[in-house]
Amino acid sequence: MGKVKVRKMAALFAMTSVVIFSAGCSVVEDTASRATDQLTDAASKELVRQACAPVQDGSIDAGELKVLSSIVGSVEGGGLPNEMVNVLNELADSGDKAPAALQERLKTSCDNATAQSEQ
Questions:
Q1: Smaller CB count within 10 Å for the chain: N or C?
Q2: Angle 62-75/82-93 helices, nearest 10 degrees?
Q3: Which residue range is the domain that position 27 belongs to?
């Protein structure tokens, strides 16, 4: 084999290696992206579950209101629907007693969030 042929084969091997390596990186990136999406989705569902649990019996008592108020900071930007975050913020600002209208809005937002997560 001549030097030119060896160089051509080395260049072809290098180009093939780059193509295979970049395709492998793409597969790893796609897998990591899917795993991140699944983790984010699971975390959002758990936050919805925690935020909606107190209102399932139809009312929010003082203890439940304190718990909801304490999680408001963690739910902002945490993948929850804005509708739910707004209601949770209003509940946190409502003091020691959650107004019935806010409780109903939270129940509606929980129903909407649950319906969206099942799609």
A1: C
A2: 130
A3: 3-118
Per-residue pLDDT, averaged over 49-63, amounts to 79
Give the model's pLDDT for residue 21.
Answer: 63
Compute CA 39 distance to the chain's CA centroid, rounded to the nearest angstrom. Answer: 7
DSSP conformation letters of 2-66: -HHHHHHHHHHHHHHHHHHHHHHHHHHHHHHHHHHHHHHHHHHHHHHHHHHGGGGGS---HHHHH
Q: How many residues does the chain have?
A: 119
Residue 41, pLDDT > 70, answer: yes
Residues 6 or more apart in contact with residue 116 via CB below 8 angstroms: 81
Structure-token pair, residue 5: 């042929």
Burial class (CB in 10 A: 0-12, 13-18, 19+), 1: exposed
Q: How many domains does the chain have?
A: 1
Average pLDDT over residues 50-72: 78
